[in-house]
Amino acid sequence: MTYQHAIEYLMSFLNLEKAPGQKYRDDSYNLDDFRQLLNQLGNPQNSFKSILVAGTKGKGSTAAFIESALSAQGLKAGLYTSPHLISFCERIKLGGRSILERDFAQRLDWLKPFLEKQKVNAHSKTGGRSTVFEILTAMAFLYFQEMRIDWAVLEVGLGGRLDCTNVVNPRVSVITNISHDHTEILGESLKEIAGEKAGIIRQDGLAVTSPQGAEALKVIMNRCRELNARLFQVGKDVIFKISEQNPEHLSLDLAGTFGKLNSVELGLNGDFQAENAATAFAALRALQFRNQQVGDPAIRKGFKDISWPGRLQTVSRHPLIIIDGAHNDYSAYRLKKAVEILYPEKTRILVLGISANKDIGGIVSNLVPQSRVLVITKAKHSRAATPEAIRREAKKFAVPVIETETLCQALDRAKELAMPQDLVLVTGSLFLAGETLELLGKKI
């Protein structure tokens, strides 16, 4: 099986990242079939220790910080994340390197007979067919088992309680900031959303949470109390402060229950990444209660060497072009504040493409008013909102609007308009960020 054949076969299964969302209930997101598949595979997820990361914003970055530090400690660490920016191979990493295309294809080819057998025997929500995400998760487990890794850092795909990554027994359960996203699936209230994400916490386990609003924090604390799980809170047990920040550099000081660590340089920028790094620090330090030490030098090296594209990433200097995968109201707000801090003298040309199932109004209201020009576009992804849908929200603000049908057209137009004092900000979805990187020939 070639890589192209592997992708074609994979895409013959239900892809919930492109299909309309089903309500997040036990009858529509049932893990029984997936557990049965893993059982037939010999339960590869039990061959390594794992850390599970859920949340609305920052879970991928937090997972990447954790994996990078574990690797810097000399441990064999795997990372499983979603979605990808350009290639499916990005989702499965070992020591910071994506799985090779040939290895990806070989694992899927090996898995294929089990998937075909499952079609005949199962009677699940998908008519006996695994979803794309379930298949990728099984492939990651198999690859990590074969590579004999020490630790896997797993990013939850959606929610937590019923996500297929939640079949592992995590040594630490991490919950990053919770806000409104995927409300059509997870529910409208923060209480509902937090309840689903708190489903990754285990009996007598260890849990770490980023700073949360009162409603979400109450749910997490109650869950930990019910399960006798020990909870470490960033903002209480771990305190962080940005010690230095400019467009080229971000460092922070960490203190609290796990001692002090000052002037920790990050390989990612933005004040929100300081929060993600502090959450990763708490998770790494909590591992001492699971007989795993991660020293200060490893944390320093791992946090500095992290590679996590598409997040406040500078992809061009002339003109200055920055891309970010902000895709909900809260992440758009954090992006706006980060740009204001890092580039206070710059005027903005905003290239914006949003998924149709997102809070278009919230994203627009955070990013458009500060822009000199708005260039509306759409990613190739099937969930992309039409330029007209974005324009309807943008009309509320006195900002010149240009509509384009493709991202290539949008980038060309933005470059033509860019003056020396301008910053071109490309954002609205991770799909748009990935397509931008691909168009500009950037390697992941």
From TrEMBL:
The keyword Transferase belongs to this UniProt entry's keyword annotation: no
MF GO annotations: ATP binding; dihydrofolate synthase activity; metal ion binding; tetrahydrofolylpolyglutamate synthase activity
Catalytic activity line of the entry: (6S)-5,6,7,8-tetrahydrofolyl-(gamma-L-Glu)(n) + L-glutamate + ATP = (6S)-5,6,7,8-tetrahydrofolyl-(gamma-L-Glu)(n+1) + ADP + phosphate + H(+)
InterPro entries: Folylpolyglutamate_synth (IPR001645), Folylpolyglutamate_synth_CS (IPR018109), Mur-like_cat_sf (IPR036565), Mur_ligase_C (IPR004101), Mur_ligase_C_dom_sf (IPR036615), Mur_ligase_cen (IPR013221)
Cofactor section: Mg(2+)
Domain named Mur ligase C-terminal: residues: 310-429
Enzyme Commission no: 6.3.2.17
Mur ligase central domain boundaries: 53-283
Uppermost EC category: ligase
GO cellular component: cytoplasm
Any matching Pfam family: Mur_ligase_C
Ligase in keyword set: yes
Keyword vocabulary terms for this entry: ATP-binding, Ligase, Magnesium, Metal-binding, Nucleotide-binding
NCBIfam families in alphabetical order: folC
Family matches, as PANTHER family: DIHYDROFOLATE SYNTHETASE-RELATED, FOLYLPOLYGLUTAMATE SYNTHASE-RELATED
Family assignment from sequence similarity: Belongs to the folylpolyglutamate synthase family.
Name of the protein in its database record: tetrahydrofolate synthase
